[in-house]
């Protein structure tokens, strides 16, 4: 069974590795609902009790899937659910969906689709430059008072927004892409802010959206609806450089009798220990085989020399290409 520990400044107890459910709604190619449900239940059996989802994943599909998977086991699971952004083409959709009315509507829709009474953590996906973060956090704080969520959080925001939001109401965590290929949270100050505020960092994208796994996906192998077809790091100009970095990491993993995925999942936890900040990786999995592989990373440790070797092989900024297409990068770190 995987170890569990107190989550940041909350009274929640979560597994040291979570389960990202994004891929279960078809964004990385076809997904099998029956296998996804079996994967969630297998995760719970292994002690992985921390699920990450969003109202925007499959436009409610992800929530309904999770609701089915946890039926009769609500007490066994901690659900972190993001708001997503409006998908109606409105100006608000481009900004991020931080309007108080949108936040309330999304929280209530999420509860209905999940079939539960209370979220454990309700997380705003992006900070809207037109809506002060204080107003957004204040609106989410009202949902806490009403019992619709136990805790609230932010995603992909700046360190300044974390501090401003926390001054209105305590924030449980920050969710941000953080991996061997994406280390913005170090240079931009989010990890330092989490430490200061006793918040946890939920690290998504730890597997590099597949580039840090045994079978790095190729553009010509992706289905038409695979979102990675639009991501810069998978484009021909960048992918070769990233695969060279991957090969070095795979050699290090093999030497430690790990899969590349296990090394990639264990690394952010080790970074958290080094920086005295709780970092909980939430790698995706949509098969029982992959959740079992992911759980194997929980017991992995690194020596100082090993961490230095990894850092030298893949220093900050080494990955070729931005995390998102240019049109989406402006929505981060604000």
CATH-derived architecture? Alpha-Beta Barrel
Distance between the termini: 38 Å
* Poorly predicted tracts of residues: none
CATH superfamily: NADP-dependent oxidoreductase domain
Number of helices: 13
Tell me the helix content.
Answer: 40-55%
Order of helices and strands: EEEHEHEHHEHEHEHHEHHEHHH
Report the count of strand segments.
10
Mean pLDDT: 95
Briefly note the structural class of the backbone: alpha/beta
CATH topology heading: TIM Barrel
Q: Any idea of the CATH class?
A: Alpha Beta
Shape: globular
Measured by DSSP, the beta-strand proportion falls in 5-15%
Q: Rg, please?
A: 19 Å
Number of separate domains: 1
What spatial order of strands do you see in the largest sheet? 3-4-5-6-7-8-9-10
Largest sheet: 8 strands, parallel
Describe the structure.
The chain has 13 helices and 10 strands. The mean pLDDT is 95. The termini are far apart. Helix 4 (100-114) packs across helix 5 (133-145), helix 5 packs across helix 6 and helix 6 (159-168) runs parallel beside helix 8 (190-197). The chain has a single domain (4-209, 262-300), classed as NADP-dependent oxidoreductase domain (TIM Barrel). The strands form 2 sheets. The protein has an 8-stranded parallel β-sheet with strand order 3-4-5-6-7-8-9-10. A two-stranded antiparallel ribbon has the order 1-2. The radius of gyration is 19 Å and the shape is globular. Helix content is 40%, strand content 13%. A hairpin with a 6-residue loop joins strand 1 and strand 2. It has 334 residues and is α/β, with parallel strands linked by helices.
């Amino acid at each position: 069974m995987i170890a569990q520990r107190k989550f940041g400044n909350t009274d929640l107890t979560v597994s040291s590795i979570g389960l990202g459910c994004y891929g279960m709604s078809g964004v990385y190619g076809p997904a099998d609902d029956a296998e996804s449900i079996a994967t969630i239940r297998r995760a719970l059996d292994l002690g992985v009790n921390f699920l990450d989802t969003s109202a925007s994943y499959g436009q409610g599909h992800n929530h309904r899937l999770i609701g089915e998977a946890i039926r009769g086991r609500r007490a066994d699971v901690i659900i972190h659910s993001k708001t997503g952004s409006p998908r109606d083409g409105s100006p608000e959709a481009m900004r991020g969906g931080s309007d108080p009315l949108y936040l309330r509507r999304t929280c209530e829709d999420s509860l209905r689709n999940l079939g539960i009474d209370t979220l454990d953590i309700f997380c705003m996906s992006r900070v809207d430059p037109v809506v002060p973060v204080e107003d957004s956090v204040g609106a989410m704080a009202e949902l806490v008072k009403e019992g619709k969520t136990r805790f609230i959080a932010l995603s992909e925001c700046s360190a300044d927004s974390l501090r401003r939001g926390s001054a209105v109401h305590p924030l449980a965590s920050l969710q941000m892409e953080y991996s061997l290929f994406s280390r913005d949270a170090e240079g931009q100050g989010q990890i330092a802010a989490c430490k200061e505020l006793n918040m946890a960092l939920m690290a998504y994208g730890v597997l590099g959206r597949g580039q840090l796994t045994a079978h790095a996906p190729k553009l010509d192998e992706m289905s038409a609806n695979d979102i990675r077809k639009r991501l810069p790091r998978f484009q021909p100009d960048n992918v070769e450089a990233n695969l060279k970095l991957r090969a070095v990491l795979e050699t290090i993993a093999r030497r430690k009798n790990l899969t590349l995925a296990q090394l990639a999942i264990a690394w952010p936890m080790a970074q958290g220990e080094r920086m005295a900040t709780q970092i909980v990786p939430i790698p995706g999995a949509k098969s029982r085989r992959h959740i079992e592989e992911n759980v194997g990373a929980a017991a992995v440790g690194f020596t100082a020399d090993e961490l230095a070797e990894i850092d030298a092989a893949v220093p900050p900024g080494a990955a070729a290409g931005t995390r998102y297409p240019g049109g989406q990068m402006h929505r981060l770190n604000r």
